[in-house]
Amino acid sequence: MNSLEIKTFFDSKGNLLPELISDSGKGNIIEIIEKIRENIGNQNYRNEKLNINQLRKFYDTFLKIYNTKVEEKEKKIQLIMLKANAQYSAKRLHTNRFNEFLSNRINLVVSQNGESFQKYLKAFKLHFEALVAYYPKN
């Protein structure tokens, strides 16, 4: 597991992990941003800094998916396509760390079904919203 991956959005009681939306606690949103922006020094793994405009574009696309009134299966397809777009951008713009972040979170959401899918989708929305809110306005 790499340093950007999470296994769940929730604690043992089913509550959203507060560090995923706040700037305090171990693994908080500020630490996640630092990991997204860090350059790990591997020539084959360049990581340009993702700018706020690029991040907002992905977030806006996610919000459209979140707010559409379609069946769960269709939302999952749209989320998988968002993941594919992040993969494409990572190759083109060298935003590999953000791609890892987004892929991990989307995989967590699409692996769920029914009420659990809705709960994970909402948790991801809050997490992504916090990321955009705290992201530096480079």
Any overview of this molecule?
By secondary structure, this protein is an all-alpha fold. It has one domain (18-38, 47-134). 60% of the residues lie in helices and 0% in strands. The protein has five helices and no strands. It has helices at residues 29-37, 52-67, 72-93, 96-110, 114-134. The two termini are 29 Å apart. The relative contact order is 0.19.
In short:
The chain is mainly α and 138 residues long. The chain is built from 5 helices and no strands. The mean pLDDT is 90.
Write the layout of secondary structure elements.
Blueprint: H1 29-37, H2 52-67, H3 72-93, H4 96-110, H5 114-134
Helix pairs in contact: 1-5, 2-3, 2-5, 3-4, 4-5
- Quote the beta fraction: under 5%
Uncertain runs with pLDDT below 50, 5 residues or more? none
How far apart, in Å, are the first and last alpha carbons? 29 Å
- The tally of structural domains comes to 1
Mean pLDDT comes to: 90
Total strand count, please? 0
What is the count of DSSP helices, taking H or I runs of 4+ residues? 5
- Sheet/helix structural class: mainly alpha
Largest sheet: none
Helix-strand pattern: HHHHH
Keywords:
mainly alpha; 138 residues; 5 helices; globular; 60% helix
